[in-house]
Specification:
By secondary structure, this protein is of the alpha+beta class. About 20% of the residues lie in helices and about 30% in strands. InterPro entries: IgE-like_C.
Length: about 160
């Protein structure tokens, strides 16, 4: 293979990687130790949600979306205990995201709500039957679109 052809293939591979990992995607890293879900695989759903409806959702209502996903479901995956799995999710233009973990017998927090502005990455650690930890980095303020009015400064305390 000549250097020119090899160079084009390398450039094409780099372009594919940039598109696959490009901006506008949420990186979701899920750590599930061996005892997660009593050693059984479990489903994860990533959905667009209204925060008010999210607060009132029943486990069975969310679980039914695995077999019959509606337009709110952005991604489903099977998680295997004893693994760290990484996902990339393209969030919707607007709205919040719910990341739901469908444990066989949930005991505690089984969902995570991510509200705008969405972070670029989220790390979640699971335990036997609930979310153990979630780590969401602080949002980086985005620049206002050109032509947008400037954001006013926060008021200064008296005497400052």
């Amino acid at each position: 293979m000549t250097g020119r052809v090899y160079g084009r293939m390398t450039l094409a591979a780099a372009a594919v990687l940039l598109v696959a990992c490009g901006p506008g995607k949420l990186r979701l890293n899920v750590k599930s130790p061996p005892g997660t879900n009593l050693g059984r695989p479990l489903y994860m759903l990533v959905r667009q949600v209204d925060p008010k409806q999210y607060a009132n959702e029943e486990y069975s209502e969310v679980a039914s979306k695995v077999g019959s996903p509606d337009k709110s479901v952005l991604q489903t995956a099977v998680l295997y205990p004893g693994t760290i799995q990484r996902f990339q999710v393209r969030p919707p233009e607007e709205g919040a995201l719910a990341v739901s973990f469908l444990f066989t017998a949930p005991d505690g927090n089984w969902q995570l709500l991510l509200t705008p502005p969405l972070p670029s990455a989220v790390d979640v650690e699971l335990t036997v039957s609930r979310i153990l930890t979630d780590s969401v980095p602080p949002a980086i303020p985005s620049q206002a679109p050109s032509g947008a009015p400037p954001v006013p400064e926060a008021p200064k305390p008296p005497g400052a």
